[in-house]
Structures are given as structure tokens and as C-alpha cells.
Amino acid sequence: MSMVERPTVRHLAARTHPEIYRPLVDAALLRVGEFCGADLRGLQRALAPIEVERGGGRLSLGPWGYVEEALCRARPLVMGARLREALGCGWFTYFMEGGADRYEGHALIEDAGALSMDADVWGVPLFLEAYPEEAWPFLRQQAYVGGFDEDVVGLWRRPGGYSSLCHAHPEGFWVLGYDAVDFVERAAARLDWVEAGDQSLGGAALLSA
């Protein structure tokens, strides 16, 4: 078995890595800004100061804190009638006005107690064969943001282009709902559909996709 197939749980899974989310979230928000005709350089400058680092601060614990802060900074540049019409009223409100506590998956990543780790950082290897086979594509990507011992929580970049927050355990594999990146990318994808002239997917359908 190669080293890629034997990542270390405590070194990779039990530490937060919000930096893997930042470029993906920023890219989706820049797509939103492009659709709205926003000043993209101004949007980049607005996003740049947000702290993404390990530590005890709320924003450093997971991607939802970063998304919430990024949306707060992006709103003055992208909010307007064109975005509201393109996303649909319900999705526009959910995307632009909701707090992070309303998003699915928020508590799963933002809980500092669940992510704390002061034991041996090297731990033991994670063997794919110990997990359900459907979890292997997720585990091989090694984009872990939380977990302890045999539990692994992380970002799964799925074949369709979206990402999902997932939880793998030897007894099961679960997709936990909207991931922070998935949440923003769905809004950007909706704008692509609108520009392509496909109005068949409304905000409600997008939320349930």
C-alpha cells in the first residue's frame, strides 16, 4: 500500500486546515462578483485581510467562519437586483443575509472542543481497508479538517465539481450536507446556468440538489 493510501489520522484528520477552503471559496465569490459586474480587484482586496490560520479564534476553526466573514465583506460589492433575480428571492436571502449558524454543517466543524487535539500528532496510519469502500475516494484526497482516532471529517471534492463535508468511520460513511465550499459554489453555478439561458432551476431546487 502506498503512502498516499496510508495517511495519518492524527497528523492530518485531527487538525484544522481552513487554508484548503480559502482559494475555493474566493474563486466562487469572484465568479459571483464577475456576474454582478463588481470591481474584482476591490473584491479581492476586501477578502485578503480575513485571517485563516490555526488557533483558538472562531474564524480559524473551520470554513464556515471564513464564508460568513467573506460574505459580509462581499455584500457591498455584489448585492443588487441582478444577483437577487438570478438566484431567486429565497436563495438570495439564504446566501447573502443568513448567519453562519443557519447553515447545515456549521456546528460539526466550528466546535472547538471536537477539534482540539493535544495527544501524539503522528498517531497511527489510516488503512483504507478499514473503512467502507465508498469512503475511499474521500479519504485519498486527504483534505481533512477534523476528527479523532478512527473518525475522519473532511472536504470531498466530488467528481461533479462540487464539494461536500463528509464523515468517515469504519462503521459507515456519511455526507454531512452543505460544505462551506459547496454552499458558495452552488450559488456561482446558478449564475452560470442563468447566463447560459437555463432558467429551469429555481432557488428551491438549487437548495435541495
Count of individual helical segments: 11
Please bin the fraction of helical residues.
40-55%
User: How many DSSP-defined strands?
Assistant: 4
Radius of gyration: 18 Å
What does this structure look like?
Strands 1-2-3-4 form a four-stranded antiparallel β-sheet. It contains eleven helices and four strands; from the N terminus they run αααααααααββββαα. With 209 residues, the protein is of the alpha+beta class. Helix content is 46%, strand content 12%. The N terminus and C terminus are likely disordered. The chain is elongated and about 50 Å long. A hairpin with a 2-residue loop joins strand 1 and strand 2. The termini are far apart. The protein has one domain.
Brief description of this entry?
Helix content is 46%, strand content 12%. The chain is of the alpha+beta class. A 4-stranded antiparallel β-sheet has the order 1-2-3-4.
Task: Quickly list its features.
209 residues, alpha+beta, four-stranded antiparallel sheet, 11 helices, 4 strands, disordered C terminus
Which helices and strands, and how do they pair?
Layout: H1 9-13, H2 22-36, H3 40-47, H4 63-78, H5 81-87, H6 89-96, H7 106-110, H8 112-115, H9 136-141, E1 144-148, E2 151-157, E3 163-169, E4 172-178, H10 180-195, H11 203-208
Helix pairs in contact: 2-3, 2-4, 2-10, 3-4, 5-6
